[in-house]
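Predict structure. Chain length: 212.
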Amino acid sequence: MATIFYARVSTSDQTVQHQQRQAEEAGYTFDKVFVDDGESGVNKKLADRPAGKELLSYLRTGDTLVVRWIDRLGRNYEDVTSNIRELLGRGVVIKTIINSMVFDGATTDPMQKAIRDALVGFMSAMAQSQGEATKVAQMAGIAHAKMYAGEAKYKGRKPAYNREQLNAVLNGLAQGLGAMELANQLGLSRSTVYRIKDNPVAAEKVLATWGV
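Prediction complete.
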């Protein structure tokens, strides 16, 4: 029985080292690590990614798979839920760093299975929903920047956050982290985190206006 860590990064403002450090700080040690970087394809299914494919072939009954969050295990709701259910069916235990979720593939109690499967579906849907909301905000910011490209105009107050921090706040909120925790992690004020939370489209537009 092995403990395996899988990390996937999609953009330049994400790092494998950050994800693995979070896991190790949570007390995990790993027998094997699988990593897919951004070049593996943002919209590819887990089984179509080099390390993802190897991971799915490697895991066996009794193994523990650790991921930062369940959205690392697929490109959308269907892919994530399909992969998790397949692994649980093999008897693999899946654990997340964020929120310390445990999905036990070894359980045989029908009620525990029902609760587990319902939670997998809910968390997967929430992850996809937040991902789509983030994309909408980014597209709105880009459109805003293009609209005013080349125009001299008052930009308003310079944002107190950068692109990496904005994405980290949105991802953290989607994964259930609180405003205070995110503020401390990212070096932001709590009010800044709340402004991003309340209006992510406006937060994206501010970055676009300033060309950050």
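Summary: The helical segments are 16-25, 50-58, 77-90, 110-147, 163-174, 179-186, 190-198, 200-210.
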